[in-house]
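Hi there,

I know you've been waiting on this one. I reran it after we fixed the sequence typo, so this is the corrected version. Both the input and the resulting structure follow.
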Amino acid sequence: MDFALPEAGHYAVGTAFLPVDEKRRGRAMTTIERIAAEEDMQVLGWRELPVHAEHAGPTAATTMPHFTQLFLSGRRNNRDGLALERAAFCVRKRAEHDLAGDEVYFPSLSSRTIVYKGMLTEPQVEKFFDDLTDERVTSAIGLVHSRFSTNTFPSWPLAHPYRYVAHNGEINTLRGNRNWMDARESILETDLIDGDLKRIYPIITRGASDSASFDEVLELLHLGGRSLPHAVLMMIPEAWENHESMDAGRKAFYRYHSSLMEPWDGPASIAFTDGTVIGAVLDRNGLRPARYWVTEDGLVVLASEVGVLEIDQSTIVRKGRLEPGKMFLVDTAEGRIIDDEEIKGGLAAEHPYGDWVSAGLVSLADLPERDREVPLHAALVRRQQAFGYTDEELDVLLEPMARTGAEPVGSMGNDSPLASISSGPRQLFDYFIQLFASSSPRSGPRSGPSRTCSRATPPRAGGSPCLTRSSTTTS
């Protein structure tokens, strides 16, 4: 580059997708520089990201953006660490919101991680991005996901988010999760991010995939003052409600956070990193696989299946699988694997969650009794007729619920027409049906992007990142 950089950790670098048209690109870059100045950040310069466009497929080539990298530093107090991350976060969010119609997207803007991604297959990635074959590019951590889109139309921005996570699976509760986050924006506050938070709203990008929405909420929780494992466990808690042998402190931790954040539920394996720690967690049902190997020279590989790398079996000192609701974590600063019990035990003991739950939550069982109206049989029948109840619903749905206190579960097909196109009268709630995974948005082309991290912190022994074809791979 033709400009000087501060020491590592005191500047942020971001890969940017900008308009191909030179005039539009110039206007976008000017706007980004203005936003950076308003956020008290200094633009150190721009770097043209070297790529080989001939290695992109025909469809990808027709929609390919212009690739560049932005370098920022904090103007005052020599900001570094999370303070710099928060400032870069505000620049990125504002730039994407203000330039949404100008095809501007930042795969990353961070002092800790760099993201390379796109509409590429595995063999294309290394050939497309020059940086990934440059011997000067080294990292203790690599996070890779490869998969084509399932429920969204492929595009360069919709390739896997990678800012914090790589996600193998589905978030089935996505619409509710997004709606809750939109509702919470009116009450969000923090002393850690300067200025009015409204300038970075909406937190969740409209039209994004389930993985991208998860990543954006996780980023907010982390930059709001929580460690990355803490934020992950808020969003993907283990099954704690009926876990009789679970430690009371850990159960209080989950119960407290359940009042702040509902689970992002579904069959999911989430790999995550902030550039120093890297790990993975499974959903509470363990419906996605994750297996790990550890070699004698300190290489750690976790992937959706074994055998993604050819490793001499005689060098493996530890192997295993990630269990439902469990977390696997490598801390490159400490140079060790932190087990699930230590992670959760430490988080549960960090604050008096049990006292907070006792003081702040009211159980329904503790509410005073009230007089209930018991309608006459004839009046109840009239109400049931007025609201369209059938004998089948009374026998199959309501009676089992009254007897067991649980929602009945069935597996029979439903060939009734949707309420909106039915010729018969339907109950009001028939017009609101559950969206299953097959109809929920999802990341675009999960094919070949990778994430490498700067070496601002002491690296974990074990060499360069693994770039393989597995669904989620860390090294």
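Quick highlight: DSSP finds twelve helices and 15 strands in the chain.

Best,
R. S.
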